């Protein structure tokens, strides 16, 4: 009994330490965003600002077009997430249900493609987009985001499709439902949590992406939020720490808010799909 209690205490302590490790950068970012320049330059930093101020946020909006950059990031991320899910969902269904060598080879290629470094693919992508005259355009950036998110989206959705019992589809077919009716009425509702989770992954990946946006977007009017954040760092490498922290804090909010809104629906949908009424 004592051994079991000590084991649980150790597990909770390890979990708490891991959570603190993950939360430390964000908490320090929030603290920095509300500190005055005097506190930021203090040799004795504190967790809680002694004199909280919003001057860093005002300065950040005055120095850089954050709203325009956020709009560009939002447009690119939403478009990439929707297109990636629309393409990946039927492909994942075929790969999961058709246990052929071609499907297995495609699944293996999806996994291997995730090991490719960004530097390896940026030159071919740049040349292709140049031929299509999509350099320095959000449409070209969306295409790149879709290509980059599609392999992992396929890998995720294949797992969700395989978790749906094929016996449900066979039962629907016995009841007279056609293939399309079965997919829409039986399979799609059970896949909804997986589709939402995949779309969330694609959105967050595109929202936080920096390298492709830096290389492909040239004019300031089309730059995304991660690229604009680098403008708070001067030519000598000295960062304007207060406004940078404020802008970075605002940049993290959409991902946190979206996940907080839908995470219960994801969990609830998974549990609902496991129970047959």
Strand/helix succession: HHHHHHHHHHHH
Strand content of the residues, in percent? Answer: under 5%
Mean pLDDT, nearest integer?
Answer: 81
- Cα-based radius of gyration, to the nearest Å: 23 Å
Quaternary structure type: single chain
The termini sit apart by 40 Å
Q: Count of DSSP E strands?
A: 0
Describe this structure in words.
The protein is built from twelve helices and no strands. It is mainly alpha-helical and 277 residues long. Helix 3 crosses helix 12 and helix 9 (179-208) packs antiparallel against helix 12. The longest helix has 33 residues, at 241-273. The two termini are 40 Å apart. Mean pLDDT is 81; it is low at 268-277.
Features:
277 residues; mainly alpha; 0% strand
What can be said about this structure in brief?
This protein is mostly helical and 277 residues long.
Task: Explain the layout of strands and helices.
Blueprint (H helix, E strand, L loop, with lengths): L1 H32 L3 H4 L14 H9 L2 H32 L3 H13 L4 H14 L6 H26 L2 H9 L4 H30 L2 H6 L8 H5 L11 H33 L4
Helix pairs in contact: 1-12, 3-12, 4-7, 4-9, 5-7, 7-9, 8-9, 9-12
